[in-house]
Amino acid sequence: MKIELTNKQFRRLLDMVYIGNWILNSTRGEDRFADYDEVESLLFTRATLEGMPSFAELYQGEVIPSRAFAEGGIHEAIAEYENNVFFDILAEDLARRDMDDAPIDESNYAELASRIDAYIAEFEQHGTDNVLVDIDGR
């Protein structure tokens, strides 16, 4: 297979591959999806040939994204995504809890959406400052 990319497009592809592999493998420990690591390694090896040698480094015999690449701002994009997803999931989980985890259908979807919107508005204004957990059963 042959794909023609500009340097800018290839740089964006490196970002996307890194982000995708991070999402798939960063929490898996030793149980990583090796085939995704292999694709990432292949593309970062290619980066060294395309005038971007600072983006890759050799680690235990494998080409991986370099520390300079990883610390170059890509994790801010990942963190922003994780932050948004966290609040969306939390809002939906709390809204469903408030509705006693009832199955959602046409009859109660509007109520669920309204509750989610209320939680999202709260999180946008206060973050998690008003989230309390009753640890001692008081």
Describe this structure in words.
The chain has four helices and two strands, in the order ααββαα. The chain is mainly alpha-helical and 138 residues long. It folds into two domains: 59 residues, no CATH class; 54 residues, no CATH class. It is elongated and about 60 Å long. The N and C termini lie far apart (64 Å). The mean pLDDT is 95.
Number of domains: 2
- DSSP strand count: 2
Shape estimate? elongated
Profile the largest sheet. 2 strands, antiparallel
Key features of this structure:
mainly alpha; 138 residues; two-stranded antiparallel ribbon; 2 domains
Summarize the structure.
The protein has 138 residues and is mainly alpha-helical. It is built from four helices and two strands, in the order H-H-E-E-H-H. Helix 1 (7-25) packs antiparallel against helix 2 (34-49) and helix 3 (67-98) packs across helix 4.
